[in-house]
Amino acid sequence: MADLLVVSNGKGEDYVAARVLERLRVHAPGLDVEAFPLVGLGEQLAAAGVEVVGPRRALPSGGFTMHSPELLWRDLRAGLLGLTVAQARFLRSRRPRGVFVVGDVYAQAHAALVPAPRRVLQTLVSVHHGGGEGVGLRWFMEGFRSPELALLRRADRVYARDPATAAHLATLGVAAACLGNPMMDGLEAEPLVRRSELGLPVVALLPGSRGQAAASLDLMRRALEVARPALGIVAWAGAGTPARPEGWVPDDPAPFGVLAAWRRGERRVWVTAGRFPAVLASADAAIGTAGTANEQAVGMGLPVVAFPVPPFYGEAYMRNQKRLLQGGLLTCEPRPERVAALLELALDDPEVRARARKAGEERMGPPGASDALARDLAGWLGG
Fold first, then answer.
1. DSSP class of residue 309?
2. pLDDT surpassing 60 at residue 383
3. Strand ranges across the sheet with 258-264
């Protein structure tokens, strides 16, 4: 059996786990590591060279099962219960020397089925969320509830995403520490283009990776039509390439890695895939309806304009993210003119931009956490 079994439950969690495991390979190259993603197929983990194991399936919600009754029903119809039973059986059969959980209470409950010492990286819940009311299915996502605290108290160590959360958990009897937020690792990149080269502001468009992406991108594009001329660079994570919208024409050849380029008057849109860090490095501001990507953009000091696109990025999810990111996230109703107005503020207002930078520093932290976590895990396992 493996020295370490990594259990994760989401695309953002897979990203974080992959960054940590890349560094763990450096600090403990002899360790035998397996990764079991509870959500999706684990493409990011496989791309990082990690052995991916266990029963897996891509479900309609893309990991947002508990964000709305509609998404829960879709996943149930697609075989969620059978998959969950198979995953539980698989975990009960494993005998690693240690388990590293990257995720929320769902991942922690599954990982508790493995009879091995456990460490947890909780990247989703922060004391900065304020422990929102969290009615219905979202109750576990708005704060640390009793069932999760019971699991965390049984962990060998819990890595919180920020110092304030670690201190809060410690008062509740959890062996908590903060070694930083690995969401901010792996984002170094050269920009695709600079504002000075175009004479236009550059806006990162972050529609997310789930079912809202196409509708989100359409509204973002319409907001660009209302706002001042700008270049919007799409960080596209969906299937295929978005179709060119009506009224837009093919643009001049764009830099390497741009899948499609459109123009409407002075306004331009580039569509990229797999170039997310370069998109953030190019941008002056962002429009986003994503989870991890919105947080990372604010962490890079960019003000992000957000609007709800239910059921994947609904009102409750957006409010929860706003509590976390504070002045880094500017929210409005899903109307192009409102999105455009907030985008103008994000591009021009020095106070808005300063608040975004402050929120990024305070709520997301600097890069380097993946290496610190890997060193700590290597010491724990004797690597």
1. B
2. no
3. 249-250, 258-264, 267-272, 231-235, 202-206, 285-288, 304-306, 329-331
pLDDT of residue 268: 96
Phi first, then psi: give them for residue 286, nearest 5 degrees.
Answer: -140, 155
- Residues comprising the chain, all counted: 383
Which two three-digit tokens encode residue 97? 């020397």
Q: 383 near 30, Cβ under 8 Å?
A: yes
Domain boundaries, the chain: 4-185+367-381, 195-363
Write the DSSP symbol of residue 48.
Answer: T
Q: Crossing angle, helix 350-363 and helix 315-325, to 10 degrees? A: 90
Q: What is the pTM of this model?
A: 0.91
Give phi and psi for 231, each to the nearest 5.
Answer: -105, 120
pLDDT at res. 181? 95
Tokens of 131: 């422990």
Among 203, 345, 348, residue whose Cα is nearest residue 267: 203
CATH fold, domain 195-363, is Rossmann fold (3.40.50)
For residue 260, the tally of other CB atoms under 10 A from its CB is 19
Cα angle for residues 53, 175, 138 (degrees, 5° grid): 65
The token pair at 277 is 């860090």
Q: Report the amino acid identity of residue 261.
A: A
Return the structure tokens found at 211.
Answer: 């079912």
The arithmetic mean of pLDDT across residues 259-278, rounded, is 95
The CATH H-level superfamily of 4-185+367-381 is Glycogen Phosphorylase B; (3.40.50.2000)
- 4-185+367-381 against 195-363: fold identical: yes
* Strand ranges, E, within 222-335: 231-235, 249-250, 258-264, 267-272, 285-288, 304-306, 329-331
Both tokens of 218, joined, read 């359409």
Which of 123-137, 284-298, 369-383 has the weakest average pLDDT? 123-137
Cis peptide upstream of residue 207 (ω within 30 degrees of 0): no
Q: Residue 310 carries which DSSP code?
A: T
How does residue 209 score in pLDDT terms, banded at 50, 70 and 90? confident
Residue 140 phi, psi dihedral angles, 5° rounding:
-75, -15
